[in-house]
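Our preliminary data section would be incomplete without showing what the modeling component actually yields. Below, a chain of 860 amino acids is followed by its predicted structure, encoded as tokens that our downstream tools consume directly.
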Amino acid sequence: MNRSDFLRLTSAGTADMATRGILGGWLLNAGMTSASAQVTGSTLKPYLQTPRPDSMWVTWWTDNGADAAVDWGTDVASLSSTAAGNTQQLGAGYRYHSAKITGLQPSTLYYYKVRTGTATSDIYRFKTPPATGTSTGRFRVLVIGDNQIISDERRWEKLINRARIKIEEKYGQPLEEAVDFILNVGDQVDVGTLNHYRNLHFDYGKSVTPNLGSMTTVGNHETYGGDNNLSLYKNLFHYHELSYQGIVSPGGDAYYAYQLANVLFIHLNSESMPNAAEGVGSVQKQWVQDIITAAGADPAVEFIISLCHRPYQAEQYVGDISNWFRTEVMPILAQTEKHVLNIGAHHHLYARGQTRDWPIYHIISGATAWDQYWGQSTERDLDDVQKTIANWAWQLIDFDLDQRDMLVECYAEANVRLPESTRWTSRAYNSRLIDSFHRRFGIAAPDAPAITNTGSTAPGQQNRVALPFILHSSSFASGAASEVLNSTQFQVSPDAGFSSLLIDRIRDVENLYGDTGAPNYEPVNINASVNVLDFTIAANALPDSRYYARVRHRDTNTVWSAWSPAYVFDVTGSSAAGTSLSLAKNLFAPGEDILVTYERPSAVAADWIGMFRDGETPAAAQPASRQYATGGAGTRNFRHNLQPGMWFAGFFGNNTTTEIAPRVPFYVGTPVQVAIAQPAYDEGQDITINWQDAPGGASDVIAIHLVGESPGSSTPALTFPARSRRGTRTITGLAKGFYYATFLVDGLSHELSARAGFSVGSQIAEVSMASTTVVAGQDFMVNFSGGPGIPKDWIGLHAAGGTPGLAPLLVYLYFGGATAGSVTVHLPDLPPGEYFTSMFTNDSYTEVSNRFYFSVVPAP
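Predicted structure:
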């Protein structure tokens, strides 16, 4: 069949998306009879998973029936082989069948049907992936994120159906010939229940999943609804047998790795689990290190892609990411340049960026799920995110294995801000290409640029400048003809080694952030009029002193050039802010260098910086170490081996002990570990707190604070001494609330531990309204207090008698992680009736407040 015939047939038959038959709906459109096509309209819809070059798992649901079999073969007319399966009775009316087809050949098309009792499915077709290590041909992956919502709109079903249409049009082939498999990035459900798995993830994807194998990732919503240990997830998906180079995942189905062709895929679990080895923590981290060590030395692996539901970075709901992945796991993945892409989700939009220093892309594939849009949350333009587009979208990864090239395209289908009545029809995006990026191996990095400013050339004399001042970079140049400029990075430091940065700015040629607002809500390139080859140092941004500047260029292959030579200049005539002293952090390991950054309005030759123990008086004590400041701004690196304990850095004027800037306290030692025995307690229940690696000071304490309060600015709910290096304390009597425990050294407000959170009681938060009666059509306000303080806590509205997570959710409003405040509900079409509002935590259906009941009455 030629391409024009294929496009004619597929475009003629896109109305009926639910029944695909052998070739994705072709046969019906080509005029073949149901008998010859063997399309019967059966309700048995198989779901392919764990695709391997020599095997495929096939699963399906029924209400009844205890047997499971798959008939298969390479000829549609002769399904002569049978794979026997097993059946799990997971609940009343929920029978789950699984069979593994083995003995398959790589890159081969197979036909199959499933049987339970007398019920038989239609015949479907799939193609096995290429042989492990294959480095020729094309290898393609469909990426599609959060499913999450069961609703009349059936958002995720529409999204994946349109992905199929676009892919078949693009390549002129049936989906299973054009694409090798599907990557799901977590939150396949809203709650981990049988209803959601069967009637959301499995049902909404049924136009695609009988033909393409799926690989899922654990998201936070899989752990909700009573399945916090993923027992149902483990029953449904068959990943525990996967490994790479014999390295088996300690987390089983919760996280795993596998190789297809010459691409290694690493699915991570970004959630904390009851069994610590299955979730965030040292066990999973060590497994990643073992995988990367092996893959880095494996010539059969060319590319590595990681998946982690909570993303590396996000410009909406800032901070709602996986800090564990960002700070602990990504540096391990970056040990090899083979790791080219991280795929996250969790936020219900599309975003793409590059890590600041490594040639690694990271994206958010948020698909559909709950509404998320600009102006809804805490937002920030971040320099490691290049595009945030609040569209519902999917991605296609196309590997040209011969050319060592990865191309990623992102296609948008709809915009949540457009009316539901038109967003999928007259105002649908119809697979609009909204982003495209690539990673190519074997091509040159950009040439090192130069700062082209001219200035004094007198011997020993630097360039003297007044602010504002523009640093100019040379033009982009590269030996790779296919690459153009994507980003620049300017740095300014008071020292030639650039150990302390006063300016560090990455800017992208295209930076999509925000939208145009009503009526179209189109993305905005906020750098459209910015020349990123120039950087302006604002007036009074730096005090008078000598500085060093440099620049580098990044190309569209996400590769940085080398740094330019330093440009040296002296700022004169500045009226910068007053004297200041700062440290990069407040906890240093014994023997670690301590870098101090300072600024001052006038360069007095005898101003000095000294290190003193906490409690010492500079006028009466000798500093453990001291250094003089030079210039208006700069850094000093203290290499003195300070003894463990509390210290402060002081800035003193003109060889005196007169302090000219606020002291900066810091601690030398190891972090204290504080742990709570369990995350939630009943009122009156004993609470066990453990600590270890403490300094053992006579005045050290552990303080218990309500979430939202800070040591030093609020009174703790309780404190107790922690004078020993390690210990356990049982406390009781806390009122209901969301709390954290933290270690305070010397009874001060200086925290030496991470905060360990826990809760006491149920329905802890309070919600209320000014009245129990609302007139239909009017906005109303919901007040709240005592919240958990998590960025994706939310207020929901249900009809009286409804069960959250099962009954329709009428409205949901995030409030940025505040512990107290109010939200305004705008529901002009809410009909008269009885309703309740309540608070839920962490983007889940875990209800943490009372229910406030109210009536909507007709307008007079």
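Residues 463-508+521-571 form a domain with the Immunoglobulin-like fold (CATH 2.60.40). The CA atoms of residues 43 and 647 lie 71 Å apart. Preliminary results of this kind motivate Aim 1 of the renewal.
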